[in-house]
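User: Structure with EPZ, tokens only please.
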Amino acid sequence: MEKLIIRGNGPLNGRVNISGSKNSSLPILAATLLTKEECVIRRVPDVSDTNYLLQILRSLGAEVERASGTVTVKCETIKSEAPYDLVRKMRASVCVMGPLLSRLHEAIVSLPGGCVIGDRPVDLHLRGFEALGANVRVEGGNVIVKASELVGSEINMRGKHGSTVLGTDNVMMAAALAKGTTILEGAATEPEVVDLANFLNNMGARIEGAGTPRIVIHGVDELHGAEHTVIPDRIEAGTFLVAGAMAGTEVTLRRTRPDHLTAVTDVLTQCGHSVVTKGDTMTVRPGSTSTGADIKTEAYPGFPTDMQAQMCALFCLTPGISVVTETIFPQRFMYVAELTRMGANIQMEGATAIVHGVEQMSGAPVMASDLRASAALLLAAIKADGVTEINRVYHIDRGYEHIDDKLIDLGADIQRLNA
Ligand code: EPZ
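Assistant:
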């Protein structure tokens, strides 16, 4: 099992290229199941999650080729059952259900387990499939979804925690080949949903309103192959903006979509840091004096839950008191105990972290628990005094493309060791 050894040292400086979005790549790769024809997807990040999905596509019968960031997929003949041993590794595998149901009128996918950020139900996905006329049952840990035909319907996609990103993706893909028109109310409005809808429309789908809470899908008879370039990863970009605010003198991000990051840049500016955008580049400089802030995670365009841990790491070293409230995955604070081991002063009250800024944190052996928590530990380690050892680094490799190399290019002192 690999670990990272980080020595807190001088400031980060320079330029970093942001990769394509993991959370956009996953549903778009799943959408290639909707056609027999070849699809070419560019800027697919080389991370474990996208590679797991490519393995699942191959196991379903797809021909898959990856040449660095470009993936070519052809799903000429496919089967309806996704293998448990692959699906259990990644909850987002659930996004193959909609395309399989749409193309084969049957999908058999193991129920995703929970994960450290909280239980990960799929009831809203299944409710959407049933509204389109599918029959859903759970048997032997698998969800079995079948339909003699899929007929458009009006569907409310909201749950007790608001909208669902992959649920919106799944039902949109299931509706793409349904008879008639489907209206999704309370749809997720994330940029990754828009990217998927754009790809589906390039394949011949007729989808309107993606990016708003009301998406209209006019079913078509079939979809054809298409080419698509995935949008930049807004969470990777946000992570590097926080890194620059915490430990930089001047860090410039290239290949970004600044308009996807306004909630993050607003908080950094509010704290006294400078973020200057110019076209697809964003330059961050730490403020000479900074103050804390209060953040509450919300669906897009609110503050993203996937940036909560990273911003909390910044608050640990920001004078004053900051408050972090998590409303989407209330348990998403596994990293707090680890930051505390490094000298952070954080009090938990339910799904709220009260952060008292400290002068300095110190390196320590810490344990990564999930993707974004690992990023928070990495950022804290770069700024901490002394050496930090981050174990279970596979968590960070799930969603950040060569993040240690990118940080080393900015001046960080990081070694990757086989433990
Ligand atoms: C997507 O997960 C992202 N993953 C997550 O990023 C992200 O944190 C999340 O959206 C929220 O923005 C991908 O896109 C691959 P949800 P998703 O369905 O779609 C509840 C990362 O770090 N819910 O929008 O699975 C759910 O429990 C990952 O890159 C139901 O109740 O999240 C949560 O409280 C982590 N029933 C809320 O909705 C359902 O059927 C939002 O979840 C589905 C979800």
